[in-house]
């Protein structure tokens, strides 16, 4: 069962869409963290934009404040948000190199999975690289 919540920001900002999958293998705080990261990296959430308070988001999602706190702590540690005591949490100003590095890390994980599948099923490396080149060129 999935729980979908569209959190309308109270200061007129864009809504934050969060989908919590109860059947997902990922902990809930990781799901929140990943979805906020994605919205920051794709420009849905912009630098300086206020995020909902931990308490408000926890209430809206029917979660423990500790769960949301863990997600916000991870986002702060990774440089995606900044928390100002007494004012709240805000999307951090991202430099393009940081975003590029995060995307490269994501691509590496997917390529690692493809390599593992290829090895385990006897697909030659040349075949995999040809497929990757084809997909890459189709994007133009």
- Judged by helices, strands and strand pairing, the structural class is alpha+beta
Give the low-confidence spans.
none
Largest sheet: 2 strands, antiparallel
Radius of gyration: 18 Å
- What is the count of DSSP helices, taking H or I runs of 4+ residues? 5
Order of SSEs, N→C?
Answer: EEHHHEEHH
Please tell me what the overall shape is. elongated
Estimate the mean pLDDT confidence. Answer: 85
Strand order of the largest sheet: 1-2
How many individual β-strands?
4
Strand coverage percent: 5-15%
Q: Name the helicity range.
A: 40-55%
End-to-end span in angstroms?
A: 38 Å
Describe the structure.
It is a single chain. With 140 residues, the chain is an alpha+beta fold. The chain contains five helices and four strands; from the N terminus they run E-E-H-H-H-E-E-H-H. The chain has helices spanning 28-41, 54-61, 65-77, 96-120, 125-138, and strands at 2-7, 16-21, 81-84, 88-91. The strands form two sheets. It has a two-stranded antiparallel sheet with strand order 1-2. A two-stranded antiparallel sheet has the order 3-4. Strand 1 (2-7) and strand 2 form a beta hairpin. Helix 1 packs across helix 3 (65-77) and helix 2 (54-61) crosses helix 3 (65-77). The protein is elongated and about 55 Å long.
Structure in a nutshell:
This protein is α+β, with helices and mostly antiparallel strands and 140 residues long. It has five helices and four strands, in the order ββαααββαα. The strands form two sheets. Strands 1-2 form a two-stranded antiparallel sheet.
Q: How would you summarize the topology of this molecule?
A:
Elements: E1 2-7, E2 16-21, H1 28-41, H2 54-61, H3 65-77, E3 81-84, E4 88-91, H4 96-120, H5 125-138
Antiparallel strand pairs: 1-2, 3-4
Helix pairs in contact: 1-3, 2-3
């Amino acid at each position: 069962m999935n729980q979908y919540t569209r959190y309308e920001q109270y200061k007129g900002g864009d809504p934050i869409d969060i989908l919590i999958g109860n059947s997902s293998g990922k902990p809930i705080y990781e799901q929140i963290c990943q979805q906020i990261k994605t919205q920051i990296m794709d420009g849905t959430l912009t630098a300086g934009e206020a995020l909902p308070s931990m308490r408000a988001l926890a209430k809206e999602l029917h979660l423990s404040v500790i769960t949301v706190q863990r997600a916000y702590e991870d986002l702060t540690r990774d440089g995606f948000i900044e928390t100002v005591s007494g004012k709240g949490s805000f999307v951090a100003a991202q430099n393009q190199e940081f975003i590029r590095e995060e995307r490269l890390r994501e691509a590496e994980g997917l390529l690692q999975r493809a390599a593992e599948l290829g090895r385990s099923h006897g697909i030659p490396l040349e075949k995999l690289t040809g497929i990757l080149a084809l997909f890459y060129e189709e994007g133009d």
